[in-house]
Design goal:
By secondary structure, this protein is of the alpha/beta class. It folds into 3 domains: about 10-115, Glutaredoxin (3-Layer(aba) Sandwich); about 120-200, Serine Threonine Protein Phosphatase 5, Tetratricopeptide repeat; about 205-290, Serine Threonine Protein Phosphatase 5, Tetratricopeptide repeat (Alpha Horseshoe). The chain is built from 15 helices and 5 strands. The protein has helices at about 15-20, 40-55, 70-75, 100-115, 120-130, 135-150, 155-165, 170-180, 180-185, 190-200, 205-215, 220-230, 235-250, 255-275, 280-290, and strands spanning about 10, 30-35, 60-65, 85-90, 90-95. Helix 10 crosses helix 12, helix 11 runs antiparallel to helix 12 (about 220-230) and helix 12 (about 220-230) runs parallel beside helix 14.
Length: about 290
């Protein structure tokens, strides 16, 4: 259910005219078609709700549960959910289907409801540019100072935690993740960060682990350890291959516990990479084949 707020409303056929068409004459209205059983809706919905609340009138978010209002979904020819249409001045202005990444959501909102670049957004852009130039330590200090003054800036907390993992400052990174609220922790970025942090906690020397696998290639534990270490070092394809091999070895040995651990590690890696990453999708397919053999 959407969070109670003036800029988020539940809409059905009886209220669509007043809540969507009429209000779109005053402000952009985003109509979010969703359902309780739709997993991608559970990703997109909170992101749109958060932006509606933060926008404070930038746009109205109208939530349509298609199971309760199938006639609206039919009227707008909704083929799949989540689906979003933007209504401006009483007419459809734009729309999209699926759970878009946050940057694409923001681009969509900028087109429909205008840009909302804040000083915080500009600071993050400068920090990311500095990191790309190798200025990681100074960027971390900038983010620490910013978060001390603006502790509710979620994107800054996530970026800082990600940089801290690279610097092996796992306790501080973990504290930043733990400080996110329930909605923030369910965002794709936060879930990916939490998964990466879990891998980093078990980080070992890659060269030593590679030697261990070479010495005993049938060792499930050695494959698991190497896979985790590779993922932590952002070598995702190589890491997933080792984790998949660990799953295969566990299945051949009828070792249910080890197989479950390998599968969980792969799923955490998929979470880290996100829904549209080609490497993750390739290994989702490979894992699904193993599961049904």
């Amino acid at each position: 259910m959407p969070e109670a707020n003036a800029w988020i409303v539940d809409v059905d056929a009886t209220t669509f005219e007043s809540q969507v068409i009429e209000r779109s004459l005053q402000q952009p209205v985003l109509v979010d078609f969703w359902a309780e059983w739709c997993e991608p809706c559970k990703v997109l919905g909170p992101l749109l709700e958060k932006r509606a609340i933060e926008g404070n009138g930038r746009f109205l978010l109208a939530k349509v549960n298609i199971d309760r209002s199938p006639e609206l979904a039919q009227a707008f020819r909704v083929q799949g959910i989540p689906a979003v249409i933007a209504v401006v001045g009483g007419k459809i202005a734009d729309g999209f289907e699926g759970a878009l990444p946050e940057d694409q959501i923001d681009e969509f909102l900028a087109r429909i409801a205008g840009s909302t670049r804040s000083p915080e957004d500009e600071l993050l852009e400068r920090v990311r540019a500095a990191v790309a130039d190798g200025e990681v330590a100074s960027s971390i200090e900038v983010l620490r100072a910013h978060i001390a003054e603006t502790p509710a800036h979620t994107a800054a907390r996530i970026l800082l935690a990600d940089l801290l993992i690279d610097m092996d400052e796992l306790d501080e990174a973990g504290a930043l993740v733990a400080g996110l609220d329930e909605v923030e922790r369910e965002s794709p970025e936060a879930r990916a960060l939490a998964a990466r942090l879990a891998f980093a906690d078990s980080e070992e020397d890659v060269a030593d682990l590679e030697r261990a696998v070479k010495k005993d290639p049938e060792s499930i534990d050695a494959r698991m350890a190497l896979g985790r270490a590779l993922v932590t070092n952002r070598k995702y394809e190589a890491g997933l291959e080792e984790l998949l091999e660990a799953y295969r070895l566990a299945a051949a040995a009828a070792n249910v516990a080890a197989g479950s651990t390998a599968k969980k590690a792969m799923l955490e890696t998929f979470e880290t990479l996100g829904l549209e990453d080609p490497v993750a999708n390739d290994y989702r397919f490979k894992l699904s084949l193993e599961l049904f053999i």
